[in-house]
Amino acid sequence: MEIKVMHQVMEWNEDVSDAVKADLAAHHVCLINVLGSPGAGKTSTIVSLIDRLRDRYRIGVIEGDIAGQIDADKIHALGLPVVQLDTDGACHIEAMSIQHILPEFDLDALDVLFVENIGNLVCPAEFNIGESFRLALLSIPEGDDKVEKYPLMFATSDALAMNKYDLKEYFGFDDQRVERNAKAANPDISVFRISSRDGMGLDGLAAWVADRIDASLKERT
Amino acid sequence: MHELAITQSILNIAENAAKEHGVKKVREVRIKIGDYSGVVPQCVRYYFDVISKGTVAEGAELKMERLPILMRCEACNWQGEVDKHHIECPSCGGIRLKLLQGREFYVESLEVDD
After folding, report:
1. CA A110 to CA B95: how far, in whole Å?
2. Which of A2, A180, A181 sits opposite B109 (nearest CB)?
3. For labeling, which of A29, B44, B57, B65 is most exposed (least CB within 10 Å)?
4. Structural domains for chain A
């Protein structure tokens, strides 16, 4: 005998993601999911964005890592609330991890929560974590074929920032190829060229992030 | 690496459906999965055999049917299958394509003994 089921496998995560979103909306907090490979420059970019946005918004950070708290220490040094989320070997952050960690923050004292996801271009793309939007980083040394190899990551992100752009000439990196493929996977994606080291392009990225934060906070009021 | 959590979800869905219909044995779990997903079916099968031991779905076969990525070109209205690593319209070369199918991931049905 056959039983029809039609049940989404990822529903457990989607339900929790919706609950996190509702909780954050109630406190007027915008969550930003920052994704990219190990070494793409997620922490440095978050620090650069904080520098440019901290006068306008009250910011907190969740640092996802497989182990250790090197990144959390960097944020802590800026004097912002930060919680380290150790996934203990897991390849991604799930909505439930965020749900468990939110009580560590005073949400009424925050406007923005950056989540630095686990360094990985595959798994984190599959899991919504209650974010308002996603920012994907791809650094020049990783190669210009990464969008073709990991399309879901870029299909589900709202912006792509090519980081370490100052190294472009050394790596023969074809940024047009990346932009073209990213827009094929996701026609609405915004594309930026940045260098966390010398600050190139970061004002533009910060302005885009601020627009998205404002839009997301406005949506809820 | 997240296949275990996904497999647990599949098992829960099968167990709940079995309970709801009062069935004693699940023979087969039929799953549809879009080609955009990075899930590795072999891993899911292996985990399923391990974690379904002692449940109503012990020994059940997992049938995972892949659904190709289907898109429609917004420029010329071409519609069809697209390789996820080369997303462009094979007809006009356009890159504004709308995803019609490929992100599905659900348990469609169970084959059971009542």
Report:
1. 39
2. A2
3. B65
4. 11-215 (3.40.50.300)
Q: Which residues pair with B109 in a beta bridge?
A: A4, B30
pTM of the predicted protein model: 0.88
Q: Which residues of A touch B43 (CB under 8 A)?
A: none
| A 140-159 → B contacts, CB under 8 A | 148-149, 151-152, 155
Residue with tokens 């080609």: B35
Q: Which residues on chain B are in Cβ contact (under 8 Å) with A151?
A: 36, 84-85, 87
pLDDT in tens, A8-42: 998 889 999 999 999 999 999 999 999 999 999 99
Query: CATH number, domain at B17?
Result: 3.30.2320.80
Question: What is the DSSP track for A16-64?
Answer: HHHHHHHHHHHTT-EEEEEE--TTS-HHHHHHHHHHHHTTTS-EEEEEE
Q: Report which residue type is found at A104.
A: E
Q: Which domain holds residue B89?
A: 3-113
Helix (H, G, I), strand (E, B) or coil at B7: helix
**Number of domains within chain B:** 1
CA distance A88 to A67: 6
Chain A residues 80-99 with CB within 8 Å of chain B: 89-92, 94
Q: Which of A92, A181, A185 sits opposite B2 (nearest CB)?
A: A92
ipTM: 0.85
CB A177 within 8 A of CB A204: no
Is residue A156 a contact partner of residue A131, using CB atoms and an 8 Å limit?
A: no
